[in-house]
Amino acid sequence: MPCSFPGLRLQLFLCFCLIGNTQFIFEHSFDDGNTFQERGKLCINTSSIRENFLSQLNKDQLLELANKDGFYLLRINTYPDSLTHVMTLTPARFLFCSNFHDVLTVHLSPKGSVIAMDLSPTNKTCRLEVNYGFKGNVTVVFKSKVLLAKSVIKGTMPVVNKKIRQEVDEQLLRYQMQNSNNGSKKSSPLVPTENEGFFQKYWIYFIPGLLFYLMLKSIPEQPTEAGGSPQ
To answer: Is 159 within 8 Å of 153 (Cβ atoms)?
Structure first.
């Protein structure tokens, strides 16, 4: 099909994506995942991404998230036009420190579907006590570097960088703790119990001997007759 779109970058993006039908949609959330809005589109063929500008409402929501140390959520559909998604998150203040530069690592299955995604802002040294804000009426757009990680063996997950995976796990745990209700904590089955006593550990080995002893006690004794020669 002829490519007659204005702008070389947009022209190449639309041509490759429309021909190969490999356009994935990024959506972000500023309210703990209750609602999502389109952030941009990813073209798998060219590893290029087209980002949307943040509206004034989005900038206000993102600013509120950063100042209360909230989390910015990002998701992508697993297939083009699919309703299923994979999601990642990062503290919103990291986006301000990184000047909205981040690295998006998208993990693909052998068939080309998205099976995992990591969002890593380029600067994670932000302090909690800083009040974040925008200087004047600035135009804000994310500047992302896209990395594609393809799984080689069918049916297996790609090897994810341990440091990134640890950071995501810690953020998820922190996110769950912030949004959980204050209630009585249930004991976890993963918490090790105290050392048990000797008989508590090995009581089962004493049962055969105990049963044998009880059987012997239950057998009545045979009376013995006094012997001797009559006189």
So the answer is: no
Q: Is residue 91 one of the residues assigned to a domain?
A: yes
pTM beyond 0.70: no
Over residues 17-51, the pLDDT tens digits come to 544 557 899 999 999 899 999 999 988 877 788 89
Q: What total number of domains does the chain contain?
A: 1
Distance from C-alpha of 159 to C-alpha of 146, rounded to nearest angstrom? 17
Per the CB < 8 A criterion, the answer to whether 107 and 114 are in contact is: yes
Residue 3 resides in a domain? no
CB 80 within 8 A of CB 24: yes
Q: In the chain, which residue ranges form alpha helices assigned H by DSSP?
A: 8-20, 56-67, 92-97, 162-179, 198-202, 207-218
Do the domain assignments include residue 222? no
Domain that holds residue 77: 8-176
Establish if 42 belongs to a structural domain: yes
Beta-sheet pairing, 85-91 with 48-51: unpaired
One-letter amino acid for residue 6 of the chain: P
